[in-house]
Amino acid sequence: MNMLKFVLAGILIPSCTLAADAGQTNISWPQEPTSFMGVDLHGDFLNDVDECPSDVSRPDTLCRVSTETPDQYLILGSDSRRVLLGYQLIAQLSNGRIDKLVFTGPANSSALVAEMLRTDFGPPSQSKTNLVKTKSGATFDNEVLGWTGEKLSIESQRNNEDLGVYSVQLINTPMSISNVQDAEQAPASDVSKI
After folding, report:
1. Fewest CB within a 10 Å sphere: which of 19, 50, 121, 165?
2. Which residues contact 112 (CB under 8 A, 6 or more apart)?
3. Beta carbons within 10 angstroms of residue 145's beta carbon
């Protein structure tokens, strides 16, 4: 009987260890970025990015302008060579560090932005299509791309409220797998302003 307990213990303990390890997700993203369009995602934003001079409309170097929202800054002078004009880059801070970086622009360049993201960051870890219905009753497919790493998550999609705008959100606290699954199961019955 002691031999049976010994054999069972030898089988059950490693199995329990494997099951426990399977519950832990090691997020591996070889191309996880540390910067986006010249902005350090993990640095001290207020020290790293100077305030924009008031006399320059299109600065050559990276700078910031305060918005009406506390701890939120419009970033100007960033590297946008591969993206069409009409973009905005906004940093939302927490304790002087970037909590979220939001890159928006006209939806007619969303395919170009999606290709840029795939080229720079590799294939997305999540991809889905939401059906978006406009006030007039028309429906559109809205592709949502997501990348999740150890320090960062990225989500790219057309704005459900305004299909004329795309949005890329870089969030310094990555979404957990359960949050991603919850977001994927959320109803996509948003009505667009178009």
Report:
1. 19
2. 82, 83, 84
3. 20
Beta strands in the chain (DSSP E): 35-36, 39-40, 50-51, 63-66, 72-76, 88-94, 97-106, 126-134, 139-148, 153-158, 165-171, 191-192
Handedness of CA 157, 106, 111, 80 (dihedral sign): negative
- 8-state DSSP, 1: -
